């Protein structure tokens, strides 16, 4: 079987080109979409993501600001900044980069963001509405993955899906989205037994565990669709996924590359949801 790459980067470029036209139209009406990213600390990987988001936002015409705060920022200092952004009419989207330093309660911060400006879909109001099937902002990574799969006309109906990883921002919402598309979904995590055997049964395998090249041919059924959410660095500092893509070549039907797969789609959905906030205004 010839394994095909699901090229998130290509779809992201195409979608962002169309977004540019929508933003141009909004700007003609005097509406300039504004996205503010708050980055606490010096985490190197986070800095790269933030720079990527900023560059892409500017390219589609979104006014993007980054507030960089020191690692030692207190919870109350961060809450004050969020209150200012909540009240600022030129800010349509607020993203507080996770993870936050340990002195800051992440859930408390996410709750403090005006849920109508939560373009990540992490606010409990959005998470709750999403769980209930109501309209909501969606977590960008799983939303991007679903958008990518649909663009390749991949069907979900009755398929066996396994999501490895149960985080609030990827695993849990991913499982729910697959379920909503009528897949039969299993969630695996660090306590799961016989992971390889379980994975081998999956028609759709989503890997979000943060262990470089963990998934190889032993985990993948002939013809399976494999989604790699991993962002790890190897010994040489190169970005590698959770999936050893070379090892499953000829086994999987489709696989997302790293880089150029899920990451660019995450950013695209963030921009999409920011523009939607302004269009609905
Ligand atoms: N509140 C919050 N929202 C997030 O969405 C969020 C977050 N916190 N914390 C960190 C993670 C990570 N994340 C990435 C997004 C895009 C790429 C991306 O574009 N990656 C490129 C290349 C990156 C490179 O070359 O280093 C790619 O995969 O092709 C990566 C990682 C968003 N996150």
TrEMBL record:
Pathway: One-carbon metabolism; tetrahydrofolate interconversion. It catalyses: (6R)-5,10-methylene-5,6,7,8-tetrahydrofolate + NADP(+) = (6R)-5,10-methenyltetrahydrofolate + NADPH; (6R)-5,10-methenyltetrahydrofolate + H2O = (6R)-10-formyltetrahydrofolate + H(+). NADP(+) binds at residues 165-167. Residues 6-120 form the Tetrahydrofolate dehydrogenase/cyclohydrolase catalytic domain. One of its GO terms (molecular function) is methylenetetrahydrofolate dehydrogenase (NADP+) activity. Residues 139-280 form the Tetrahydrofolate dehydrogenase/cyclohydrolase NAD(P)-binding domain. SUPFAM superfamilies: Aminoacid dehydrogenase-like, N-terminal domain, NAD(P)-binding Rossmann-fold domains. One of its GO terms (biological process) is tetrahydrofolate interconversion. Catalyzes the oxidation of 5,10-methylenetetrahydrofolate to 5,10-methenyltetrahydrofolate and then the hydrolysis of 5,10-methenyltetrahydrofolate to 10-formyltetrahydrofolate. Homodimer. This is Bifunctional protein FolD. It comes from Jeotgalibaca dankookensis.
């Amino acid at each position: 079987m010839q394994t095909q790459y699901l090229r998130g980067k290509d779809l992201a470029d195409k979608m962002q080109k169309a977004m540019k036209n929508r933003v141009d139209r909004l700007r003609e009406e005097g509406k300039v979409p504004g996205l503010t990213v708050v980055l606490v600390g010096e985490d190197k990987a986070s800095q790269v993501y933030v720079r990527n988001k900023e560059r892409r936002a500017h390219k589609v015409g979104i006014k993007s600001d980054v507030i960089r705060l020191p690692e030692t920022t207190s919870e109350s200092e961060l809450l004050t900044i969020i209150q200012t952004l909540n009240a600022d009419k030129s800010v349509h989207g607020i993203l507080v980069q996770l993870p936050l330093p340990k002195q800051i309660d992440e859930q408390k911060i996410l709750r403090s963001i005006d849920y109508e400006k939560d373009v990540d879909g992490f606010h409990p109001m959005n998470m709750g509405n999403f769980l209930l099937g109501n309209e909501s902002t969606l977590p960008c990574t799983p939303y991007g993955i679903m958008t990518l799969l649909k663009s390749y006309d991949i069907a979900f109906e009755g398929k066996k899906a396994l999501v490895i990883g149960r985080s609030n921002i990827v695993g849990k919402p991913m499982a729910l989205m697959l379920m909503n598309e009528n897949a039969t979904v299993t969630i695996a995590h660090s306590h799961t037994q016989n992971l390889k055997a379980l994975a081998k049964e999956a028609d759709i395998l989503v890997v979000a565990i943060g262990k470089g090249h963990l998934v190889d041919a032993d985990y993948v059924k002939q013809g399976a669709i494999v989604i790699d959410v991993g962002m790890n660095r190897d010994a040489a500092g190169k970005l590698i996924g959770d999936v050893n893509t070379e090892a499953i070549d000829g086994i999987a039907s489709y696989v997302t590359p790293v880089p150029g797969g899920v990451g660019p789609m995450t950013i695209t959905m963030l921009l999409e949801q920011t523009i939607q906030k302004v269009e609905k205004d």
